[in-house]
Amino acid sequence: MLDLKTIEKLDSKSVGFFRFKKLNGDYLLTNDIGKYAFLSETDFKKFITGKLNRKEKIYQGLKKNLFIKDKNYQAQLIEKYRDKNRFLKFGPSLHIIVVTLRCNHNCVYCHASAGKTDDKSLDMDMATAKKVVDNIFKTPNDAVAIEFQGGEPLLNWPVVKFIVQYAREKNKLEKKNLQIRFVSNLSVMDEEKMNFLLNNEVNICTSLDGDEETHNYNRVYLDGNSFKQAVNWIKKIDKAYKAKYKGKKKNYYRVGALITVTRKTLANYKQVIDTYIKLGFKTIYLRYLNPFGFALNAKDKIWYTPEEYIDFYKNALDYILEKNYQGRHFYDFMAVTYLIKILFNKDINNLDMRSPCGAGIGQLAYNYNGDVYTCDEGRMISRMGDEMFKLGNINKNNFEQLINNDLCKSICLASCTDGQAGYEDNVYQPYIGICPVYNYSVYNNIFQAPKNNVKYMIDEAIIEYLFIKLKNRKNKDIFTEWVEKSQTREIYR
Questions:
Q1: How many angstroms separate the Cα of 260 from the Cα of each of 108, 289, 315, 474?
Q2: What is the DSSP letter of 492?
Q3: Which tens digits make up the pLDDT trace of 371-382?
Q4: How many angstroms separate the CA atoms of 315 and 334, rounded?
Q5: Any bridge partners for residue 283, and if so which?
Q6: Given this model, what pLDDT does residue 490 score?
Q7: Position 112 pLDDT exceeds 80
Q8: pTM of the prediction?
Q9: What is the CB-side half-sphere exposure of residue 218 using CA atoms within 13 A?
Q10: How is domain 91-391 classified at the architecture level of CATH?
């Protein structure tokens, strides 16, 4: 074991800043730019006391990854730290629009607290929609993603159609990198709507909670079989995508799917993954439940302990790796999000995994009535009767007023892991994120130390398991391939 006397001999002139943890017999080291290294106990002692042989491969690797100082150490560290956090200067890129809160499903975990199908008072009108799009294009970010959420957006189709057309027309002048995403249960999709979305290069995404039994248990369709409806349109849309983009190098526009893991999913992980593979998906996103909306009223039916979810995730990841060993390319998007950070030291736009998170500075959420929130999760809190995360209203506030306010600044502060107790000395600090909305919902405070924080426990366990797997060369090669191939595909939140 490493003793205090050895630590006191640390050679501060040659050793750069690092965090460490003993993991499976070796020492895992990380630094502020997200680089990592595994060292045996013997090599770790040599490293901190400055006694590593400079000609050895271990020394050269540590020097390259800025664990060891040289004359260029400070300049390189600044450059790489700036690059890792470059997203901070761009402004909101993701803009979530809720054109209606009406929905024809009664999902047991509905985070959005959807309204009744016939309550048209929950629809966005054209005037509000126009102001929302105008505000979106005020962002200084050259990349803009408009994402339709709900409710079920197909139930307010005229406004969806208007927003798509108006945004495309407006972008002829603005010339931004514009993506439009459409998240739907697909139950009221038809050929005309599908063709409109495809012709306007709208990425379509649906919810698919796995096999038919699991999906229909979680996602109750008031007028039929939710699974069959979703699968029917997944196949139709894929067929239409292939026909439209046949022969083109970049085929980004294939239907995507999202899963929400409930207690029902835990024992069925193989069936869930097999269903995704059977339907032609290359990825799954094994996201855990969030404590928002109707999910809070169904704890006895759908919730699980952090330990139960962690066991599920490890089993599912092992099963996915088995599929890859057999030659099938298939990956978990949550794993890839962390692996991009670990292997390539970059952040993609998974905004609740950044530090600070994307609320306000990376995304905005627009409710049907023009209210603007820090993020979609903040909007979900408002449906529970709490306007804590409301930035303003599109009819009353301009872009600068929405962004430059105390709430937005407080969320940035609460979600920045640098300097926060329990995070700053944690070996996984470069990779983990904080969600102030989650903290507020569960602990009634946007600031919450990682100790006894359920979200932190889960995220830390996933990252640690990925590092354990990375020690195997075969797994590392597979993980690297996942990251490289994921960069050529459209990634959904």
A1: 11, 6, 17, 29
A2: -
A3: 999 999 999 999
A4: 14
A5: 331
A6: 39
A7: no
A8: 0.93
A9: 29
A10: Alpha-Beta Barrel (3.20)
Q: By C-alpha distance, which of 177, 167, 123, 101 is closest to 376?
A: 101
SS3 72: coil
* pLDDT mean over 102-109: 86
354 secondary structure, DSSP code: S
Pairing of strands 371-373, 363-366: antiparallel
Long-range contacts of 333-338 (CB under 8 A, 24+ apart): 333/283, 333/284, 333/285, 333/486, 333/491, 333/492, 334/285, 334/286, 334/287, 334/462, 335/462, 335/466, 335/479, 335/482, 336/283, 336/482, 336/483, 336/486, 338/431, 338/462, 338/463, 338/466
Q: Which tokens in the block code for residue 402?
A: 């929405």
The boundaries of every CATH 3.20.20.70 domain in the chain are 91-391
Contact 95, 147 (CB under 8 A): yes
The answer to whether residue 462 scores a pLDDT higher than 50 is yes
Q: Residue 281 carries which side chain, given as an amino acid letter?
A: F
Reading the block at residue 5, the tokens are 């006397």
Is 339 a residue whose pLDDT tops 70?
A: yes
CB of 356 closer than 8 Å to CB of 412: yes
Token reading at 435? 């969600």
Q: How far is CA 275 from CA 23, 284, 311, 462, in A?
A: 34, 10, 21, 23
